[in-house]
Specification:
Trp Operon Repressor, Chain A, 2 domains, Alpha/beta knot, binds ligand 9D3, single chain
Length: about 230
C-alpha cells in the first residue's frame, strides 16, 4: 500500500516513519510513505499557501491552487489513482470500520490542513473522503494522518509479525470489550502483587477472570461499547 501525504510540515513524519513496525514494513516493500510539501506548488514570489478568509473572520485559509496542483502532480507517481482523504475536523469520525474500509485501498493520498482550514474549492474539485480523528481540536491534520496510517497499517497483511498479530484487538469488528489488566515479572513490585489466578496455571480460570474483568471495566468506563446501536 502506498501513502502520499500532502503537508506544510513534512519534517513531522520521519520520526514516526522510523518506528520499528513501520520501518520493517517499508523495508519489506509492503508499504511506502511519501511526503510532499505543497508549499512547493505555490507560484507567487512569497510562496504563500494561505490568505485571509472572504467574508471576514479570524485566522487564515489555505489557498486552493497549491493543494489541487500538488495532488495533480503526485497522482501520476503511481499506477493506482488512490483514494484522496482530507483530514479535517468536519469529516466523518475515524472508527475501526472506517479503518477497515481504508485498508482495502492500494493507495491513499492524505491531505493535511492547517490554520483555520482549507478553501472549499479543494473539496469541490477533488471530492476527498473527509475524515476527523475525534472531537478535540488539533493544530493541523498531520498528527491525524499519522493516526490514520498507524491504524490502517496494522490491517495490511504482512505488516505485523506473528508476535504483534491483531486478531484479538479490542474494537476489531466483533470484539467491543476493553482488555483486562496485564502483568509481567516481577511477581511483587513495591508491595503490589500479581493476582493469584494469573499464577495458577489454570488456563480456564485465567480466561474466566479476564472475561469478568473485561466486562466490569467496560461497563464502568465505556458503557457505550456495550450498546450495539453505537
Ligand atoms: C474554531 C473552528 N475550528 C474548527 C473546529 C477551527 C479549526 C481548528 C483546528 C480548524 C482546523 C483545525 C486543525 N485540525 C485539523 O486539521 C484536524 C483535526 C482536528 O482538529 N481534530 C480531529 N481530527 C482532525 S483531522 C484534521
Amino acid at each position: 500500500m502506498r501513502f502520499d501525504v500532502l503537508t506544510l510540515f513534512p519534517e513531522m513524519f520521519p520520526g514516526y516513519v522510523s518506528q520499528s513496525i513501520l520501518a520493517k514494513a517499508i523495508q519489506r516493500k509492503i508499504i511506502s510513505i511519501h511526503t510532499h510539501d505543497f508549499r512547493q506548488w505555490t507560484t507567487d514570489k512569497h510562496h504563500s499557501v494561505d490568505d485571509r478568509p472572504f467574508g471576514g473572520g479570524p485566522g487564515m485559509v489555505i489557498k486552493p491552487e497549491p493543494v489541487v496542483e500538488c495532488v495533480e502532480s503526485v497522482r501520476p507517481l503511481a499506477d493506482q489513482a488512490g483514494r484522496i482523504v482530507l483530514l479535517t475536523p468536519q469529516g466523518r469520525k475515524l472508527t475501526q470500520p472506517v479503518v477497515e474500509e481504508l485498508a482495502t485501498e492500494e493507495r491513499l493520498i492524505l491531505i493535511c490542513g492547517r490554520y483555520e482550514g482549507i478553501d472549499q474549492r479543494v473539496v469541490d474539485l477533488l471530492e476527498p473522503d473527509e475524515i476527523s480523528i475525534g472531537d478535540y481540536i488539533l493544530n493541523g491534520g498531520e498528527v491525524a494522518a499519522m493516526v490514520l496510517i498507524d491504524a490502517v497499517l496494522r490491517l495490511i497483511p504482512g505488516v505485523l509479525g506473528d508476535a504483534e498479530s491483531h486478531v484479538d484487538d479490542s474494537f476489531s469488528s466483533g470484539n467491543r470489550l476493553l482488555e483486562s489488566a496485564q502483568y509481567t515479572r516481577p511477581r511483587e513490585y513495591r508491595g503490589l502483587t500479581v493476582p493469584d489466578v494469573l499464577l495458577s496455571g489454570n488456563h480456564q480460570e485465567v480466561e474466566r477472570w479476564r472475561a469478568e474483568q473485561s466486562l466490569a471495566k467496560t461497563k464502568q468506563r465505556r458503557a457505550d461499547l456495550l450498546d450495539d446501536t453505537n
